[in-house]
Write a structure and sequence with these properties.
The chain crosses the membrane at residues 496-516. By secondary structure, this protein is an alpha+beta fold. The protein has 4 domains: 4-90 and 165-183, no CATH class; 98-150 and 199-312, Transferase(Phosphotransferase) domain 1 (Transferase(Phosphotransferase), domain 1, Orthogonal Bundle); 315-439, no CATH class; 442-516. Helices cover 61% and strands 8% of the residues. Strands 1, 2, 3, 4 and 6 form a 5-stranded antiparallel β-sheet that branches. Strands 5-10-9-7 form a 4-stranded mixed β-sheet. It has a two-stranded antiparallel ribbon with strand order 8-11. The protein is globular and about 95 Å long.
Length: 517
């Protein structure tokens, strides 16, 4: 019942922006043509279809805006005019009043902006679905960006999530694949990450962790530049970080004019993704062009810049090993190994025939190898894999939903930068090197080093523990005797039960004979 008003609002906004006309015009079916003719008897839309869709998503709130952000990177799946409009959702959502933003900063940090900062720009430089950003200067001269959470977000998101739970429950009950897809668990994952995004202290901690993973003095310093967190200027609804200077990764012409090697940039993006996923098990999970910039400063020209750390993903060691082996098996075209991994992990029923699953996966993936990215749609590959998984009852893993979304983002970025990028050949050497480091001598040495501190505490106790174990009296004879007595008692009980059952049967037979006479 709580979701009903929200559902009505969604329907009213869809009608207001004539999304019915947009949907019907994209369906090539006689009934759709007739319905479109009926719909157009009313007022014809005056705005372009892309603008209508963007404004509708903005009106519906942050969850729908994020959906539009993901769609904007998939120009292979949606028309260019719609993609161009949806791209505006990445950092040009209508801002809330600047006076209100300043008041939120002052209330959170406990002082007027004039006292907190040497300069605070009242007009936001960027505005997204959850928050907006204002530039400022600290009293020590450092330039910073202040992110302020939009007021009233929690209530809006809770209403949308309530509606999504209702829809997920209906899908689970009514759809043939409902239980296998685990829609309620997927919504639960989405719920968790959205509420995490509403806590800017958590986002600041995510930023700090990612910066440490790509430390300026580490081996990966040239891959990704992450801003420094100004902890003294952070609160649950205010996040202050180092100001970054760069160009959105989607503005390829500007990057090329500065002398940035675009094909190298595309390959580096793939390497950054796999480094986060497999080396760290901690990855930026909102990698649309509004959050990924490229430095235009002479000293760091061409280096990636990451922004907006509200949504991050984490993977367990099991998930990392499983995914790495699957990726390598795909790249090596070892489809039997892919099938075996799915069966061993329990993602498909144990009764599944390995050779049948192998043949199905081969039919999906084989046509896409040795093709440039321009000729591959990962979305279409995933769709075909989804259709195959339905046949074999593959269970959807909710903890990997964010990874799948991020992989689609990365593909969208790679397609914009270098359509000729070979995703398979770029990723395969990295994964092979990663597996070698984990299972080879280097990996063993690293694990020994990690465990050495704990072992140093255990080793001195080993002689005492071994002596105590060897000094214990031998109780095996007593245990064996007790087991024998238990077995004899059980056998005696069974004999008694059989005898009582026989007596009861005889008594019942006599009673029935007496009644019949």
């Amino acid at each position: 019942m709580m979701s009903l008003p929200r559902l009505l609002r969604i329907m009213l906004i869809a009608l207001r922006y004539r999304l019915d006309e947009l949907v019907l015009s994209g369906i090539d079916h006689p009934w759709a043509v007739r319905l479109l003719w009926v719909a157009r008897l009313g007022s014809r839309p005056t705005m372009a279809r892309g603008m209508r869709l963007r404004l509708a998503l903005e009106s519906l709130g942050p969850i729908f805006v994020k959906f539009g952000q993901v769609l904007s990177t998939r120009r292979d799946l949606i028309p260019p005019d719609i993609a161009d409009e949806l791209a505006l959702l990445q950092d040009r959502v209508a801002p809330f009043p600047s006076r209100e933003a300043a008041a939120l900063v002052e209330a959170a940090l406990g002082a007027p902006t004039g006292q907190l900062f040497a300069h605070f720009e009242k007009d936001p430089v960027a505005s997204a679905s959850i928050a907006q950003v204002h530039f400022a200067v600290l009293h020590d001269g450092r330039h910073v960006a202040v992110k302020v959470l939009r007021p009233g977000m929690l209530e809006v998101i809770d209403k949308d999530l309530s509606l999504m739970r209702v829809l997920a429950g209906l899908i689970e009950r009514l759809a043939p694949d409902g239980r296998r897809l685990k829609p309620r668990e997927v919504v639960g994952e989405f719920d968790k990450h959205l509420h995490d995004e509403l806590d800017l202290l958590r986002e600041a901690a995510n930023c700090s962790q990612l910066r440490r993973n790509f430390a300026a003095d580490g081996e990966r310093k040239d891959l990704l530049w992450v801003p420094e967190v100004m902890w003294d200027y952070c609160a649950s609804n205010v996040f202050t970080m180092e100001r970054m200077y760069g160009i959105p990764v989607s503005q390829v012409d500007r990057l090329r004019a500065l002398g940035v090697d675009i094909p190298t940039l595309a390959r580096t993006g793939v390497e950054i993704f796999f480094t986060q996923v497999f080396d760290d098990g901690f990855f930026h999970a909102d990698m649309h062009p509004g959050n990924i910039y490229v430095s235009d400063q002479p000293a760091t020209l061409g280096r990636y810049i990451a922004l907006d750390f509200g949504i991050v993903g984490s993977l367990s060691e099991f998930d990392k090993n499983y995914l790495a082996q699957n990726f390598l098996a795909f790249f090596q075209r070892d489809y039997r190994r892919v099938a075996r991994l799915h069966i061993e992990s329990g993602w498909v029923p144990a009764s599944t025939r390995e050779e049948e699953l192998e043949g199905a996966v081969r039919a999906v993936c084989e046509p896409y190898f040795d093709r440039p990215l321009a000729e591959i749609s990962l979305g279409q590959v995933l769709l075909r894999l989804f259709q195959t998984s339905r046949r074999f009852n593959v269970e959807i893993q909710p903890q990997l939903v964010l990874l799948q979304k991020t992989l689609l983002n990365v593909e969208g970025l790679g397609r914009q930068l270098d359509p000729q990028l070979d995703l398979w050949k770029t990723a395969k050497p990295y994964l092979e090197r990663w597996m070698h480091q984990r299972v080879g001598l280097k990996g063993i040495r690293k694990k020994l080093t990690q465990e050495a501190a704990q072992w140093s505490q255990w080793l001195p106790e080993f002689p005492r523990l071994i002596y105590a174990q060897l000094s214990r009296p031998d109780l095996s004879a007593a245990v064996l005797s007790e087991l024998q007595r238990s077995r004899q008692a059980r056998e005696q009980g069974n004999r008694l039960l059989v005898a009582l059952t026989g007596v009861a049967a005889v008594a019942l037979g006599v009673a029935l004979w007496a009644l019949i006479r």
